[in-house]
Design brief:
Radius of gyration: 14 Å
Order of helices and strands: EEHEEE
Number of helices: 1
Distance between the termini: 33 Å
Length: 86
């Protein structure tokens, strides 16, 4: 199976643009020292889109996606994904 996931082009003037699938659900928890990330299909596609947005050319090192518990994600902890260039 192949699925195309489109994402918004990075614009230095406006920063990252994140697009969510309708009905997305993501849940982030820590259990016994492990991070558990759970999501419905719309949530997982949305997360994949966010990762592709961070990975695209032109996005500066240090740019990040911050998903806040109780807002973008359910669960007890925030999820922060940051781009780092060597």
């Amino acid at each position: 199976m192949e699925q195309l996931i489109g994402f918004e082009r990075y614009d230095p003037a406006s920063g990252l643009t994140l697009r969510w699938e309708e009905g997305f659900e993501l849940d982030v928890n820590i259990d016994s020292g492990e991070v558990l990330l759970r999501g419905n299909p719309a949530g997982l596609v949305s997360l994949a889109r966010h990762l592709l947005t961070l990975a695209q050319e032109g996005v500066p090192s240090g740019a990040h996606v911050h998903l806040t518990a109780g807002q973008e994600v359910d669960g007890e902890v925030d999820l922060i994904v940051e781009r780092v260039d060597d």
